[in-house]
Specification:
Blueprint (H helix, E strand, L loop, with lengths): L1 E10 L2 H11 L3 E6 L3 E5 L5 E6 L14 E7 L3 H10 L5 E6 L3 E7 L5 E7 L2
Parallel strand pairs: 1-4, 5-8
Antiparallel strand pairs: 1-5, 2-3, 3-4, 6-7, 7-8
Length: about 120
């Protein structure tokens, strides 16, 4: 059901953030979608995803919730949500549909947000 994922970080300036993670930290830029999203490889088993912050639509960069875990689902979001609900997970709200991804959210036992992502590209 889960086929990998990414640690996501909301940022205020995509160009500046990519330059920092790439130039200062030495991470490899794997993919960038305009000024909204960038993926940086932080070794063979960790991907950092940078999202542009757009409060109040998104959380503000540097605040609670601005860093999250996003798990990529295998198959459709509906199948993943159904399977997880059958295992006791409570999905919060509706599935959000965007141009390149569909997102659903649940929380772990401590209240930490876990995002499920169905990649559409």
């Amino acid at each position: 059901m889960i086929k990998g994922g990414v640690a996501s970080i909301y940022v205020t300036d995509m160009k500046r953030s990519v330059e920092f993670y790439q130039g200062v930290l030495g991470l490899t830029l794997r993919n960038q979608v305009g000024g909204d999203w960038a993926e940086l490889e932080a070794g063979p088993s960790l991907t950092l995803g940078l999202h542009i912050a757009r409060p109040p639509e998104t959380v503000a960069a540097g605040t609670a919730g601005a860093v999250s875990v996003e798990l990529h689902v295998a198959g459709t979001m509906e199948d993943a949500v159904s399977s997880l609900a059958n295992r006791g997970a409570a999905i919060e709200g509706e599935i959000a549909n965007y141009e390149h991804v569909r997102i659903a959210m649940l929380r772990d036992p401590d209240g930490n947000a876990i995002l499920l992502a169905e990649l559409l590209d």
